[in-house]
Amino acid sequence: MSEGGFLESGVKTARMWAQDAGCTVTRGEVLIARSNTPELVGRVAMFPGEPKGAVTSDLTIRIWPRNDITCEFLTAYLSFLFQSGYWKERAGGASGSMKKITREQLQSERVPVPVLADQEHLTASLDERMRGSADVRQSMNKSCPSKHRGCLRQRSGGAPRDSGDAAARSGTLLWA
User: Fold this and answer.
1) Tens digit of pLDDT for each residue in 41-79?
2) Whole-angstrom Cα distance, residue 77 to residue 6?
3) What's the sign of the alpha-carbon dihedral 37, 39, 42, 47?
């Protein structure tokens, strides 16, 4: 799982025994990081179906949506919770560096379920906006020297370096 969802490039090959076949993920499964750093716990991705035979680790919660909710909509909703810091605030664990969410926490979460046509419309609109965002990021990476990207990310995140930096307070993007 990554910022952009499920990445096939992150898949590693391994030998499996026949009895482990139940670990194989199927197209449309929603995968949630149940144990990770506070910043990454609750990260969500939908498995697209490829590569065949992929399995998840025991640190992943697998969800199959009911018939009245699409996997794309559930992924988008749970991704919103992740992006907003919802799971970071609710995750437990004794360690400050590793947090956990439970299946019970997920099961008790109330998910809004609009009619299927509205779910499809909402996820199509979100996908279109995400593609546009990816295009902007790709364009920025091509035109921006790598030594300036950290500054750009810091500035676009709205965090001024210091209170005396007028450009930072105004949100203006500057090159270092």
Assistant:
1) 889 999 988 888 888 888 888 988 888 999 999 999 999
2) 16
3) negative
The CA dihedral of 64, 69, 71, 75, to the nearest 10 degrees, is -100
State how far the Cα of 31 lies from the Cα of 44, in Å rounded to an integer: 6
Beta strand 30-33 pairing with 44-46: antiparallel
Residues 6 or more apart whose Cβ sits within 8 Å of residue 27:
47, 48, 49
Closest to 97 (Cα-Cα) out of 38, 22, 10: 38
CA 168 – CA 87 distance, rounded (Å) = 30
Question: Before 51, cis peptide (omega within 30)?
Answer: yes
Cut 0.90: pTM above it: no
Each residue of 83-110: pLDDT tens digit?
A: 888 988 888 888 778 888 988 998 888 8
Contact status, residue 33 vs residue 91, Cβ threshold 8 Å: no
